[in-house]
DNA sequence: CCGTTATAGTTTCATCTGTAACCATTTGCA
DNA sequence: TGCAAATGGTTACAGATGAAACTATAACGG
């Protein structure tokens, strides 16, 4: 047997990050799905529209770090469900002009507090100092 | 306009974690894929076998936090590729007995240092104190 | 023993995701 | 102008993923 130096997966940072992120995202996603029939991607699109509307699909993609195909699909479901209104841009007929509908706002206002709550529960396990450091780490490793 | 209190997605922790994790994982996955035709899941299975072999498929699933379906699929590709040897357990013929093949060890020994390297590059952006705190945070939020 | 229940692993199906190709429209510039 | 290149967005295809059903074997309780 030669010296194979196997990797300790459970100490390997990319692995641990992936586990944590999946655990958290799936817990949240499951809830949105069950109560509002809303996928994670759909929710991200709605959250961005709530903040910056009106936006084009491309702008939604920029804000959400999703690619344009994913955005297009999420939007077609949201428009179908009557949660987003889509118009054509007056000067550039390629662009869409996207806004939350009234129903979209209702869903947003129901989901947003729950989202915050999930984050709060997560952070409640950490000390003040750990929270600050985590924010700093994320700024360094994944600047938005 | 009523008070809609939209969510700041780019400050929302689950979102940021997901971005970071996906960025890191995809960068690594792409490399393994190109050079060894190895998916992330396959690599995880190999890493665990390297450390604990022989294992049954269920044990691999426990160590990797993957579900048994994902493990089964990864294993069938690895066995097919001659990277893992699969036998039946003597006393319990439901179980498989899994080990890296010689070829599997060769791949492992080529990939493991690269994996460590990725981690090192990532950590190089952080201070000693941030690294320690991050480890502590992960222990709290995603105990393995 | 024998029938029920549990376990190991695979297969199936429906959904999701990423990449590339595609269509329509607009822009840039010869 | 008018034609090539760029842009916004959708569609098509291929591979990945998760839940549930299924097969085979083993364990358990009367």
UniProtKB/TrEMBL annotation, chains A, B:
Keyword DNA-binding: yes
Alphabetical list of InterPro entries matching this protein: HTH_MarR-typ, Metal_resp_HTH_trans_reg, WH-like_DNA-bd_sf, WH_DNA-bd_sf
Keywords: DNA-binding, Transcription, Transcription regulation
Keyword set includes Membrane: no
Sequence ranges assigned to domain HTH marR-type in this UniProt record: 10-143
One annotated GO molecular function: DNA-binding transcription factor activity
Name of a matching Pfam family: MarR_2
Coiled-coil stretches: none
Annotated protein name in UniProt: MarR family transcriptional regulator
